[in-house]
Amino acid sequence: MNLSSLGALPFLWMGWSFFYPYFGFCEGAPFKQEDGITSNAERQSCWEIEEFTVQQECTRCDDYTKKTESECMFSGFVEKIKCNHSGQVEYRSCRSATEEELKFWKFEGSMLSFGTVFAILVLFRQRTLDRRAEYKVLQQIEAI
After folding, report:
1. Are the CB atoms for 104 and 124 separated by under 8 Å?
2. How many Cβ atoms from other residues are within 10 Å of residue 26's Cβ?
3. To pair with 52 at 20 to 30 A between CA atoms, which of 6, 28, 118, 126?
4. How buried is residue 24: exposed, middle or buried, by Cβ count under 10 Å (0-12/13-18/19+)?
5. Res 76: pLDDT
6. 3-class DSSP state for residue 20?
7. Residue 93: strand pairing partners
């Protein structure tokens, strides 16, 4: 049994299952409840209607806070803000620039890796097909 008869599917599955846990592709915000119940998260925050200053930059939430605070559930990061007019201090969800950059470079690295692997597979397949075609031509020449 040669390698070309197996096809690429087992290798794709092996590669995906190896790299999947490291990229966090399925991280996302939970679905919004649509059952008509109003909660504190649905009320309009002061930073949506007035000017504010950022008191603490975007920081990562700990595991407990991610599960209990609605602001931490969406992105896993939160920043502390103070509204200028009312003086109210609130937290709001934010995206970390360093985390986004890290995800970008992970994606770029994975695409480079997959591109390299598939380029090598294409070269291997092309050489195999060239050898088969050359062998058929030689058989046709010998038959004459």
Report:
1. no
2. 6
3. 28
4. exposed
5. 86
6. helix
7. 78
Spatial separation of the C-alpha atoms in residues 92 and 45, rounded to whole Å = 9
Quote the pLDDT of residue 72.
Answer: 84
What is the chain's percent helix, strand, coil content, to nearest 5?
Answer: 60, 15, 25
Give the 3-state secondary structure of residue 83. Answer: strand
**Which amino acid makes up residue 74?**
F
Phi, psi (degrees; rounded to nearest 5) at 17: -70, -25
Q: What is the pLDDT of residues 65-118, one digit of tens each?
A: 888 888 888 888 889 888 888 888 888 888 888 888 999 999 999 999 999 999
Give the sign of the dihedral formed by CA 109, CA 17, CA 99, CA 29: positive
The phi, psi pair for 76, rounded to 5°, reads 85, 0
How far is residue 47's CA from residue 91's CA, in Å, rounded to a whole number?
10
pLDDT digits (tens, 9 = 90+) for 20-38: 555 555 455 444 444 444 4
